[in-house]
Amino acid sequence: MSALIEVENLTRVFDVSKPWLNRVIERLPKALLTAVSDVSFGIEENSVYALVGESGSGKSTIGKIIVGLVPPSSGKVEIDGVDLATEPEGARRAAVRENVQMIFQDPYASLNPRWKVRDIIAEPVSARGGDTEGLAERLLEQVGLSAQDAGKYPHEFSGGQRQRICIARALASNPRIIVCDEPTSALDVSVQSQVLNLMSDLREELGLTYLFISHDLTVVRHMADKVGVLYLGTLVEEAPRDTLYADPKHPYTQMLFEAAPRMDAFGRDIDPPKGEIPDAINPPPGCAFHPRCPIAVDRCRKERPRLREVGKTRVACHLAE
Amino acid sequence: MTTPVLSVRGMTVEIPTRRGVLRPVDNVSFDIAEGEILGVVGESGAGKSMTGNAVIGLLDPPARIVSGEVLLKGEAVHTAKGEKLRRIRGKRMGMIFQDPLTSLNPLLTVGEQLSETILEHLPVSQSEAEKRAIAALDEVGIPAAAQRIDSYPHEFSGGMRQRVVIALALCAEPDLVIADEPTTALDVSVQAQIIALLKRLCRDKGVAVMLVTHDMGVIAEAADRVAVMYAGRMAELGPVREVLTRARHPYTAGLMGSTPLASQGQKRLRQIPGAMPRLEHLPDGCAFHPRCDRAEARCRQNPAPDLTACEGRAACWFPLPAQSEKEEVSA
Amino acid sequence: MAETDMPSDAPIRPPSRIKRAWESDLAWSFRHTPVAMISAFVVTLLVLAALLAPLIAPHNPFDPATLNLMNGFTPPGEANAFTGDSFLMGTDDQGRDVFSTILYGMRISLFVGFSAVLLALVIGVVLGLLAGYLGGWTETIIMRVADVQLTFPAILVAMLIFGIAKGITPPEYRDQMAIWVLILAIGLSDWVQFARVVRGATLVEKSREYVQAARLIGRSPFSIMIRHILPNVLNPVLVIATISLALAIIAEATLSFLGVGAPPTKPSLGTLIRIGQEFMFSGEWWILFFPALTLLALALSINLLGDWLRDALNPKLR
């Protein structure tokens, strides 16, 4: 079965050097940050693929590359067989673009405060000169708000309602794929469940495909069909949800599961994980996780592990089995 | 029973605005004993941070405590002003904020900030203060503390910086520490480190901790008792295990039920309808009644009963029944 | 999916535009700041007086037919020894009514001020948006030019521009062109602060997610700048425009005072002050005093209004 989204050897390097003049005067080398390093995965139609990782893992960058906000340094993203970065035909590019939308983390910053909700929601269509008659009203009702809300401004809504408006805007161009970048991490727990339920309902009704980016393991467990774990820009493990949560193979995934606060762990005294995420500008050689890894051997310090299949899991660790 | 370290009695905070007087904290009472961690949990707008700020005297005017009292080891601190307030705040209460970068002075080394605080509040010499500063950094798990003492805040990573903030909050040997979302800005793996550190230090030093957070998981792991706040009022207060596993207040029950963990394996998450009301538009009666499935006429007319006055732990007219011990064992 | 965050089905009629404006935070703050209300009153009064000068002024100071040289140097309120005419603020050496010249002078001062600020605003906002949104070389060039210009006092830049413009206009048009040259000079010397503030605000807005959402939709950079970013950076622009207006009026007065501004045939407040100071020490104080007082009142109240606006629009101080 061929995937709807195919990500191949995706790499993105950011130039985070100081300005040219400072570099010359202070004799600094160029500082390059590898946010995404040789990542490959595929997303099946009408499934939820989750990317989890901590800060600096490159999960948001991958999302932005897929929607086309950030160009890749190398590698490619094919959506429905079309590579946005190289596709020469404008019409096909536009068609793919319409098919991919995004929901952002901060529902307060992602709506223009000077625009009415009606114009915000209809913008993906009106920007192309399409017919927007009644569109916003219909979408508002679809996401559980009222059609009368169309004439209001964003500041009149609570965080959860704003996220519903963002979802309505994402749906305006009838997309097939929605990239959700931490869609509920700015929301309160009781509101989070409303938004997650809405997203599940919409997926079923409209046959949507989600790329779900999150750091919250419990939310991912609820939403995802397949999960990819990122560490410092590399995909370290990928497995179907139940397999991953039942039997995490990579030491980093294990550490993450162990460290996540648990609702049933009253007064538990865990041995907290060692160390912190290293600087992505000068990542450790070999396996990036080896300085924090409890089972690292000499090979891990020298040779970067490649993804290999162990059962249903793909894992990048020399020692996993 | 010994006097609790912190005793808050009927504290009410009001903010006069042009649209009327807002009451972000309404008649809140709780105690924290020596070495105890009280988790204060609630969603945004619940008044949990405002409660912490009111206790330590950091309310931004025009917000002020209009009634009730705050007693630190039996001594009233809500009436303290000027120099006295400053002494209490620096010496006897410490504060840990969410963002470690903004709570440290970027222009001073961490050593200078630590020894300055120690000198200010403890009768020690300069060299002794420096020694204590190194010991404090060592204690919070900063490697090579003697060398790092001359580093500036920006030279530390996020997790290490929060450790410095904890060292700073604890270096004057306070009775009470208020930690306001201390791990929210941190990654999961670092968060676990900071929680473990906070727990260990408070237990060892016998410091009372008020841990303000929205994260139920953090509360479950760190707190001894938990206070659940809703719309400025205390909804439920009790031992953490009991409140989280056998909630009596419908709001607590809804909050626990709506976490993805609780609905594991189910297709849809349980949800509480609606959102926390804004302070300007608090409903009549119990503030939770529009979202509550147990609400009856009484809840719409009368404000929720006072937590201290009602039997049980929940400020609710119709609390969920207490489950029997047997059920607990089978669960 | 039936639940909403708040019951939003109740059909609530939105209040009318005027009512909303009256109840807005800005209007509320205005009504509760006496300084702002007094300043606004003074500014309105002066602007109205200037606009309605032909109706209010007892004389037309620029119509030689109505002037009587015999009326020269009449002190304010007193009757002239020869003609028996009396003037509210006295007359100047040529017998022109000072009150009338002030009204007409204010017209020129305000016109130059408004036009210069408008010019500076347009240039500054456009360049600021481009620098902030496009970044890279565009930003470097625009902001370095701005930095260089800031190293000269604005009045010097204005004099330079004025000199160049004067040099290239034919002599017979000089008096007619003087006003326009003045506007150009002040406007070009004042765009930098608009550009800097707009660039800063643009950088903040650019990083917000609603701009990313617009990019995702496929809007062009130009359309994003105009439709999304511009409306969100206008608050600080409004504040600066107000304070700049006061500065531009003073700059115009300074230039005119130095004799490089409005010609004596079309005197602005600055020109009047220059004329008046010649008689300062010979006892005819009113020729200087009343124009200077008007300039002070105008600039001060506009400035106070700007200060209030800055505080009222700043969410941190609210």
From TrEMBL, chain A:
InterPro entries: AAA+_ATPase (IPR003593), ABC_transp_ATP-bind (IPR050319), ABC_transporter-like_ATP-bd (IPR003439), ABC_transporter-like_CS (IPR017871), Oligopep_ABC_C (IPR013563), P-loop_NTPase (IPR027417). It comes from the Bacteria. GO terms for biological process: peptide transport; transmembrane transport. The keyword Transport applies. One of its GO terms (cellular component) is plasma membrane. The keyword Transport applies. Keywords: ATP-binding, Nucleotide-binding, Transport. GO terms for molecular function: ATP binding; ATP hydrolysis activity. It is a peripheral membrane protein. Residues 5-257 form the ABC transporter domain. Gene3D superfamilies: P-loop containing nucleotide triphosphate hydrolases. PROSITE patterns: ABC_TRANSPORTER_1 (PS00211), ABC_TRANSPORTER_2 (PS50893). It holds the Pfam family ABC_tran. It is found in: Cell inner membrane. Belongs to the ABC transporter superfamily. This is Peptide/nickel transport system ATP-binding protein. The lineage of its organism: Bacteria, Pseudomonadati, Pseudomonadota, Alphaproteobacteria, Rhodobacterales.
UniProtKB/TrEMBL annotation, chain B:
SUPFAM superfamilies: P-loop containing nucleoside triphosphate hydrolases. It is a peripheral membrane protein. Residues 8-256 form the ABC transporter domain. It holds the Pfam family ABC_tran. One of its GO terms (biological process) is transmembrane transport. SMART domains: AAA (SM00382). This is Peptide/nickel transport system ATP-binding protein. The lineage of its organism: Bacteria, Pseudomonadati, Pseudomonadota, Alphaproteobacteria, Rhodobacterales.
TrEMBL record, chain C:
The chain crosses the membrane at residues 35-57, 108-134, 146-165, 177-198, 233-258, 285-309. Keywords: Cell membrane, Membrane, Transmembrane, Transmembrane helix, Transport. It is a multi-pass membrane protein. InterPro entries: BP-dependent_transpt_permease, MetI-like, MetI-like_sf, OppC_N. CDD domains: TM_PBP2. It is found in: Cell membrane. GO terms for cellular component: plasma membrane. Residues 106-306 form the ABC transmembrane type-1 domain. Belongs to the binding-protein-dependent transport system permease family. Coiled coil: none annotated. One of its GO terms (biological process) is transmembrane transport. This is Peptide/nickel transport system permease protein.
